[in-house]
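Hey,

The postdoc asked me to send both predictions to you directly instead of through the lab channel. I've kept everything plain text so nothing gets mangled by the mail client. Protein one:
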Amino acid sequence: MRRAVDFVVMANTFHGVPDKARLARGVAAILKPGGRFAIINWHHRPRDETTVLGKPRGPKTEMRMTPSDVAAEVETANLKLVDVIELPPYHYGAIFENPVH
């Protein structure tokens, strides 16, 4: 398959993907060299600590992933973690790049 895209973003769903490494390989297959894959995720905190309008929000506590957990899955597809940014109050963004060969 020809690499066709510069950027892929996935928000608030990576934690629930059954085969995260397979998904990462699929993204890597369509990224141009130098293309980026951004994953926005909930911080690994107890769900009852991430409230909106007084009610817990986000995935179950046991499904939440740290940035290093996400990197361990995505880097199996030869995508390299280039940055982790804070997205207050409850999220972070992990940004991966497809290396230029």
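Protein two:
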Amino acid sequence: MPVEQALSARRSRREFAPTALGMSELGQLAWAAQGIADRAEGFRTAPSAGALYPLELYFVTGAGVWHYAPNGHSFEPRSDRDLRRELSRAALDQEAVRSAPCDVVITSVTERTRKKYGERAARYVALEAGHVAENLLLQATARGLAGVPIGAMDDEAVSRVLGLGATEEPLYVVAIGHPR
């Protein structure tokens, strides 16, 4: 699908078919969001201030939770439990989070950016999260999937659900699946 067509077709959709996404689909979504686009330089598909890449991605599905490792284009298992119901509660009980076959949680280790950019780090990280979410949504659209970005959440509750460390904070949840 040409970029123009994906831009035109992308809409926030909150209703999903229950069909699970395969690992190859998750891999393509992960690559579009944060994958390595230039092996020689290490640049990723989304821009990052100073190429510091403070964002992390977690894929929450019915089969468990995986952390995306861009350097190896691989998924590191974090849990074998379906945590979508708990994540939905942490996202202020939004049904789209519970019913989506996959919720991608975008988190930040802002200190990576703060070391170089000081007070401006929070702004740069927020902008980067927007870039990553849009890449994710456009790739989903291009593959015939539906998605909705969700910013309403209890940050501490999301951190507990995912078992995030003290230096990592959730920024965004993107619910993705086949449209109903």
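Summary for protein two, as requested: Residues 12 and 148 are 5 Å apart (CA to CA).

Thanks,
C.
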